[in-house]
Amino acid sequence: MEPAFENIQAKGATLPEQAAEQISKLIVEQHLTCEDKLPSEFELAEMLGVGRGTIREGVKLLVARNVLDIRRGKGTYIAPNPGEIPDPLGFFYYPDQFRLALDLAEIRLQMEPWVARVAAERATAEDLKKLREACCVVEQDIVAERDHSKNDVLFHVAIAECTHNLVVPKLIPIITYAITLFVSLTQSRLKAQTLVDHREILDTICDRDVERAGAAMERHIEYNRALLQEIVGRLGKDKGELPSSTD
Amino acid sequence: MEPAFENIQAKGATLPEQAAEQISKLIVEQHLTCEDKLPSEFELAEMLGVGRGTIREGVKLLVARNVLDIRRGKGTYIAPNPGEIPDPLGFFYYPDQFRLALDLAEIRLQMEPWVARVAAERATAEDLKKLREACCVVEQDIVAERDHSKNDVLFHVAIAECTHNLVVPKLIPIITYAITLFVSLTQSRLKAQTLVDHREILDTICDRDVERAGAAMERHIEYNRALLQEIVGRLGKDKGELPSSTD
Hints:
homodimer, mainly alpha, Arc Repressor Mutant, subunit A, 10 helices, 3% strand
């Protein structure tokens, strides 16, 4: 096997950045997974020809980026989904959260009916079982008057899993970012409609009715978008931010 | 004005993680932008009621996540697009880069014709000027036999900018992730077709011909997908990874 590392030489990036890059390459080249422990600081320092301090800083960078995972009392492992981070596009920092929510709704309206159609085509029996469960969990939240926003996202992710496309389930949490903000702004109207819509989406996918699955999803997102637009109009767009869910 | 910070109390997250979260909130609440310097370690330590070491580690976390930016000799500033990182879904770590590329092509085929249609509807004169320039840059790369993959992505981002949707231009670099790998695998066939396709997409958008812009983009992506599928078939899917572009 070829050596996984080149010795680090001073380029544009800082030494810890370069160490992080080399460790990333090691993970890929050696097909390391979340079962695998990272070599020790000492071993990495030897391999890269740098001090242990540089390795330590490089590892910190990769922990911050969710590539590595420090398990208390066990050591440093590869993260379960290396490099995947919450809010990867930095939506949290967008100054106009209203506009962000409306722009996301536009994307959802384009993407998710297609996702539902593909899901109706490709879902396995196992997928449908998980989808039914995900639907029930949202229903239980709503009936119990708990915040259903997290499980709502997971229902849409479960639909995306039915497509067997590797990336679609990763895009759903991005484009549904506004759900949490949105749910807190709406009252029982949204909740009642969500129960009906989700059930219809579930049933049409389970029936493998491609066209009706797409149409049901389209109605669901369009309803949500119209409600959001109404709220934005009411609260005044110039305020420039949605009230936070903890208000 | 309300105080931006709560004093940090021990919760689940580590102290540096909590400091990072509080600093993030400060950035949002005080509408700080890339023009703004972060308060000093000393000031932050006072505000959060923790040691400077904790602040230092929290700042490192936010630098690793591209929320903060250390400018040499100037200090720590807010990053230009805070929280936006390259490869936010960790595609680099996916074991089957072939399948990733094909799954991304499926998403592009769904998204980008729509993006082209919306671009043809909404583009301003200024947008079209930038789009023409972006098209020329790719052409120059191809004619000069340089790697055109980076500028190819930027052409597709320029189309996405024409939609005036905040998020669409951020999604393009994600779903075009495979272009770099892909370009290195293809020969002059792709380059000649890219010249023709990009020009047609540009012209139809400039003509504000919504339907033809969508159709031109669809053909472009479908051509790319078919070529990719052919290559994947030829190289053998079982290998599980595309040759790296430096091979």
